[in-house]
Each structure stands twice: as C-alpha cells, then as structure tokens.
C-alpha cells in the first residue's frame, strides 16, 4: 500500500542526494585516512601505542560514521534534520564574486600588499553579496565607491596592526604605510 | 588570612595608581576589541606585544596583558551574540543561544546577561584565586595522563552528543576535527603524518585558520549563497537590560557556571571549551520545562548566562597554576609566563614570596579590570549593537578583511588563505546539512593533546587499557562519559514505552 505520496508536504526539497553525497564523502575520507595510516610506522616506543594508532581509530570511526550516514539516508534521510536556513537554491552567481575576492586576495596579497589586496577583496565580495540580495550589482561608479570604502577599512587596519601591534602584514612598498 | 587581606590591600594601592589604571583600561579596551574581531585572539595579541616588556615596568605590563586576556572574553561574547561569529573558542557556546536570542529580538538581554554574568563570575573567581591558589594547584598535580585523557574524552562526548540535533552528525564532525588535528608532526615521535609532501602542513593546521575559515568566512559565503533575500533586520534593541524573569533565570546559571568553570581553569588541559560545554549541558538539563523549548530555537538566556560565567571563571582560574606552580593551563597563560620570564621573574611557588608586590597588584587589578569591562560592555553595549545596523554586504565583506589579518598574521603564509577558503567551503556544506562545527574545533585542539595523554597513559599501563579502569578517578570519568552518551537515549526510550 503506497501511502507516502499523499502525506509528503509538497514544497519540501529532497535533500537526500546531497546527504548521500556527504555520507559517501565521509567513507572516502575514511579510506584516505586509512591509506595514510598504513604509511605511518607503528613504532610504539615504551610499550605505549605508536603514531599510527589514532589515525587508524579516526579512519575506522569516520568510516563507520559514513556508513551510518548512508544507512540513515536510505531509511528516510538524516534524522532530526531542520530545514536549512535561507533560500532553497544557492545563488552561485553571488558566490562566485565573493570567492573571487577571497581567492584573489590570497593570490595577490604578497604581490600588491595588504591594503590594495584587501580593498580588492572587499570590492569583489561586496558586489557578490549585493547580487545575493537582489540589488543591482553596480556600475563603474559604484565599484569605485566600493573600492574606496575597502581602502578606508583596510588601510587603518593595516596601520593599526603593523604599527601598534607589530603584526607582520605584507606591504606593497617597504615604507610601512602602503 | 589576615596576611592575605593585608597583601590584597597593598595590591590595590599599587594597582590603583593612575598609570596602572590607565594600563588596565588600555588592556581591557584592546582586549574587548580583539575579542570582537574573529581570528585574532588574546594569545596572539599578547605575544605580539611582548616587546613592550623591554620598556614598560613589570607590574604595569602584566596588568595590561591580563586586561587583554579578560577583555577578549567579554568582547568575544559580544560578537558571538550579535554576529554568530565567535571571537574566541571559549565563546563558541555563547554563540549557540546568544545568536538565537539576538535573532528573536533579545540581543540586549543576551549581552546584559553575558556582561553581568562575566563580571559576577570574574569577581567570585578572583576571590577564589586569592583564597585557594596553593590548595587547588596542589591537587591538580596529582592528576596523571589517564585522568587527563578521560577528561578530554568527556569533552569530546559532551560536544558531539549534547549540541545539535543528531549525535551521529556531531560525532562525524568531531572525527573530522580529529583528522585535521592529525596533520603535521606527531608530538611524541616526531613522525610526520598526513602532510602529502606539502611543507606548509608540517606545522599542522593552524587552529585560528580553521576557526576563522569555518566561522567567519563560512558566514560570508553562506550569506552570499542562501541568505541574500532573508529578512535583513535581525532585532530591534531598545535597552541592554534584563527583565525580572531574566534576572531570576540568569543568576543561578551564573553561579553554577562559575563553579563549573573555575576548577577547569586550574587543571592543565582544562581550557575553556570543556567547562562552557558542560555548563551549557547542565543549564539545558536543569532548565524549567517552559524555558527548555527555547534552547536552540528562540534562544534560552540560561544558555548564555551559564557558559559565559564558566568561561570567565575558567580564564581567571588559569592564574592559579600559573602563579603558584609556573604551569600555564592555557595558551595565553603560557605567553604571560614568558612575559614574566622577560623580567627575570620565575613563576613558581616562590613567586608569592619573592615578587609578592607584583602578584598582589595583579590580583587586585583583576577586580578593577572586571569593573572596567562591565562598564565597557554594558552601557556601551549599544555601540556594539549598532554593528548590526551596518548593511549586510559591506559588513561581511569587511569581516573578510579582518579574517585575512588573523589568518595571515599567524604564519605569514598566503597558502593559509587558500586553505581558509577551502575550509569555508566545507563550512558551508556542514551548515547546509546541519553538521555542527564546534566539534570540529574541539577535535582539532584537544585531539593532539588527548592523543599525547592516551599514549603516555598506555606507557604507564605498559600497553594495557586496564590502566584507565584501575585508577579510581579515570574510572569515574569514564563512567560519566558513558552516562552522558546513554542517558538521553534511555530517557527517550523510557518515554516512548
């Protein structure tokens, strides 16, 4: 007797493919950990346990967790799953801009220095976040404004941390001001 | 007793001089700011400021550093509550209930209970430090590796089984954190593990990196992906005060939190994660049924009051073994130790005799610092709340800049920034599928320590697991672990049948 369809709330997205993927990812991670553990010598020293003990334990536990997660998915999905907050579908366009900012920052920070790199990160990220809110991404004028705000945040931060707190941050020039 | 009182009064005289008061204020203000910023912690800040010990007098600089240490705890809870980005690991638990409270319009109450609770806990804890420093440290030395390991096992259990809706997901997250903690050189044998030949991994995965990546950067990415159209206005805050009911609910939690947190600060490997989780679990269990349903939904004030008190008590308590035995029980305490060494002062049992003036001035400044922090965080809390009025887009983009400072400032490695991004992607997935992130951090931090303790314990037990059961303290702790895991299930099964 098929009773499931009439009782399923219609609007609920099916998260089970994603959940299954996570369970499989856990099992794969466990396999990777096991492979790594096999390469660690088990020299136990003073009759204790060796450096490979915990890797094996973590690998086994992760594998077990992965299997249990997969079992949960096959028997109706993750237990006690609240609907995740936010939209049902991801705004990948927005995320690409934010990611570009972060990755660009990581790639360029040692080349163009903290202030410029972080200002760039800010400009790209704020553009992405604005897109996610459904607002217009902004024309060139807006982008310039964003860049200026970015500089207004990153410059004092840079000066505060390098001059007063002696944190080592990369600068474009050696002057310590840029 | 009388001697203690006289010493303390002398300490107040020293700590009360205008110069030292200024240093205390500077430390508290800086500490609060550092606590608010994700990524930079008191340990890193104090370490970076160590050069001042060449110029500044010993008492003044210790008061300054101590101010940073406590201020960071106060500030960290502010960000946890308002922005769900815990400034410190000790305030992670505050983020759980505090942020929920902020989302339901009760940010003011959360901040108030956090500040006042911290003040109450800090003051009580300082009194306890004054009275019991020698006695407590003496007991702590008797704990051996088997007991330490069981303590950490208890922490792992509480963090994965108590938080979140699903123990399985919590444990998976925990083992992910443990796996991250395995990367790098093994403490005991120096064996390199899981580096994949990448040199940057030799030192392991930096905790700040994981915390900033999984919390701050994940927040930015998740917002871009899913929360763009969400209701931007989180709360209307009128006053940072609590209603009478909230006071009544808070103060027992403060007291319980203080007495849970204090012992953990005194033992090595205590840290602030265990007592805050324990306090949260306790408050959750002991809450009135009508308030229990607020946990995890609209936010229960006990869940902020207890852990915040526990946190502050634990931080204050780290001074006990530091000043009496020279044993630092937290990273920041270790840095404070090296600050003392810069002045040629050897922390240890003799400290109370040889540098009595400094020690008592430091203790006195704790009282003063707590008052300053209460003022900085309570009436001025409206300033912090204004943070929420900043439009979301520039706010999260700005957080990325501070995240960069924290992560890059640690190891001057742009590779770390790439890892941070990778971890943020993982964080988005974890959040989307309701995997808690706290166990990852706890697994990462405590994992290597627990492993070291386990292996030392096994050495003591000559390769046999019986060592954990033969010693009464560790057997007791193991029993508690089993109880924590089994009791909820038993209760649920009992309720069903």
Structure notes:
Chain A has 178 residues and is mainly alpha-helical. Chain A is 65% helix and 0% strand. Chain A has 2 domains: 16-43 and 50-80; 92-164, no CATH class. In chain A, helix 4 (92-132) packs across helix 5 (140-164). The longest helix of chain A has 41 residues, at 92-132. Chain A is flat, with a radius of gyration of 25 Å. With 497 residues, chain B is mainly alpha-helical. Chain B has one domain. In chain B, 73% of the residues lie in helices and 1% in strands. Chain B has 23 helices and 2 strands. Chain B has helices at residues 2-15, 18-36, 42-49, 58-83, 92-103, 107-141, 145-161, 167-182, 207-226, 244-266, 273-286, 289-292, 302-317, 319-325, 331-342, 351-354, 356-377, 381-385, 392-411, 414-432, 438-460, 467-470, 472-496; strands at residues 184-185, 192-193. In chain B, strand 1 and strand 2 (192-193) form a beta hairpin. Classes of the chains: A mainly alpha (178), B mainly alpha (497). Chain B: The chain crosses the membrane at residues 20-50, 62-83, 109-136, 148-165, 171-189, 201-222, 325-345, 357-381, 393-410, 417-433, 473-492.
Count of helical regions of chain B: 23
Mean pLDDT score of chain A, rounded?
A: 84
Shape of chain A: flat
Principal-axis shape of chain B equals globular
For the largest beta-sheet of chain B, the strand count, sense and barrel status come to: 2 strands, antiparallel
| Total count of domains of chain A | 2
> Greatest interface and its residue counts?
A-B, 80 and 69 residues
Number of structural units classed as domains of chain B: 1
Strand-pairing-aware structural class of chain A: mainly alpha
Q: Tally the helices of chain A.
A: 5
Strand content of chain A: under 5%
Query: How widely separated are the two ends of chain B?
Result: 57 Å
Helical percent range of chain A?
A: 55-70%
| Unreliable stretches covering 5 or more consecutive residues of chain B | 232-236
**Could you give the count of β-strands of chain A?**
0
Gyration radius from CA atoms of chain A, angstroms? 25 Å
Major sheet of chain A: size, sense and barrel closure?
none
Q: Strand order within the widest sheet of chain B?
A: 1-2
Pfam family, one (chain A): TctB
Keywords (chain A): Membrane, Transmembrane, Transmembrane helix
Protein name (chain A): Tripartite tricarboxylate transporter TctB family protein
InterPro entries (chain A): DUF1468 (IPR009936)
């Amino acid at each position: 007797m098929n009773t499931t369809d009439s009782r399923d709330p219609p609007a609920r997205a099916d998260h089970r493919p994603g959940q299954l993927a996570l369970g499989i990812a856990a099992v794969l991670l466990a396999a990777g950990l096991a492979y790594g553990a096999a390469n660690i010598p088990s020299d136990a020293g003073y009759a204790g346990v060796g450096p490979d003990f915990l890797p094996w334990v973590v690998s086994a536990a992760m594998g077990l967790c992965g299997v249990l997660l997969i079992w949960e998915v096959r028997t109706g999905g993750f237990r006690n799953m609240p609907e995740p907050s936010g939209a049902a579908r991801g705004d990948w366009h927005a995320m690409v801009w934010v990611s570009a900012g972060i990755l660009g920052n990581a790639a360029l920070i040692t080349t163009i220095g903290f202030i410029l790199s972080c200002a760039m990160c800010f400009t790209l990220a704020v553009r992405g976040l604005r897109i996610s809110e459904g607002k217009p991404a902004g024309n060139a004028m807006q982008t310039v404004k964003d860049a200026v705000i970015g500089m207004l945040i990153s410059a004092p931060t840079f000066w505060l941390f390098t001059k007063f707190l002696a944190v080592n941050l990369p600068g474009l020039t050696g002057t310590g001001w840029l | 007793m009388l001697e203690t009182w006289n010493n303390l009064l002398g300490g107040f005289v020293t700590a009360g001089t205008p110069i030292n008061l200024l240093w205390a204020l500077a430390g508290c203000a800086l500490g609060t700011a550092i606590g608010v910023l994700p990524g930079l912690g008191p340990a890193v800040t104090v370490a970076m400021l160590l050069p001042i010990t060449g110029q500044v007098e010993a008492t003044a600089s210790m008061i300054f550093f101590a101010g940073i240490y406590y201020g960071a705890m106060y500030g960290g809870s502010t960000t946890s509550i308002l922005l769900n980005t815990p400034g410190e690991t000790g305030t992670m638990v505050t983020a759980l209930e505090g942020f929920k409270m902020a989302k339901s319009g009760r940010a003011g109450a959360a901040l108030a209970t956090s500040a006042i609770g911290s003040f109450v806990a800090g003051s009580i804890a300082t009194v306890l430090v004054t009275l019991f420093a020698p006695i407590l440290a003496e007991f702590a030395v008797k704990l051996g590796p088997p007991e330490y390991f069981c303590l950490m096992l208890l922490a792992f259990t509480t963090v994965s089984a108590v938080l979140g809706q699903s123990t399985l997901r919590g444990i998976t997250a925990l083992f992910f954190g443990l796996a991250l903690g395995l990367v790098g050189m093994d403490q005991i044998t120096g064996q390199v593990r899981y580096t994949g030949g990448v040199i940057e991994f030799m030192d392991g995965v930096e905790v700040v990196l994981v915390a900033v990546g999984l919390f701050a950067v994940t927040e930015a990415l998740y917002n871009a992906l899913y929360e763009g159209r969400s209701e931007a206005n989180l709360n209307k805050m009128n006053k940072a005060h609590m209603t009478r009911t909230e006071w009544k609910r808070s103060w027992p939690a403060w007291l319980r939190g203080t007495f849970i947190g204090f012992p953990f600060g005194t033992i090595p490997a205590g840290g602030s994660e265990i007592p805050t989780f324990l306090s949260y679990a306790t408050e959750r269990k002991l809450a009135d049924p009508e308030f229990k349903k607020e946990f995890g939904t609209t936010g229960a004030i006990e869940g902020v009051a207890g852990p915040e008190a526990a946190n502050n008590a634990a931080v204050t308590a780290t001074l006990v073994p530091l000043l009496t035995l020279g044993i630092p029980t937290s990273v920041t305490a270790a840095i404070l130790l090296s600050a003392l060494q810069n002045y040629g002062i050897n922390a240890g049992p003799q400290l109370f005799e040889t540098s009595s003036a400094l020690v008592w001035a430091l203790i006195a400044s704790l009282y003063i610092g707590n008052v300053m922090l209460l003022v900085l965080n309570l009436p001025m809390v409206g300033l912090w709340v204004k943070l929420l009025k900043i439009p979301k887009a520039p706010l999260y983009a700005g957080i990325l800049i501070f995240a960069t400072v924290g992560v890059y400032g640690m190891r001057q490695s742009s590779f770390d920034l790439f890892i941070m991004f990778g971890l943020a992607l993982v964080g988005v997935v974890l959040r989307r599928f309701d995997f808690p992130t706290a166990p990852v951090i706890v697994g990462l931090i405590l994992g290597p320590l627990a492993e070291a303790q386990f292996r030392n314990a096994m050495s003591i037990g000559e390769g046999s697991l019986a060592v954990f059961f033969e010693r009464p303290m560790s057997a007791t702790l193991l029993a508690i672990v089993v109880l924590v895991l089994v009791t909820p299930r038993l209760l649920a099964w009992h309720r069903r049948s």
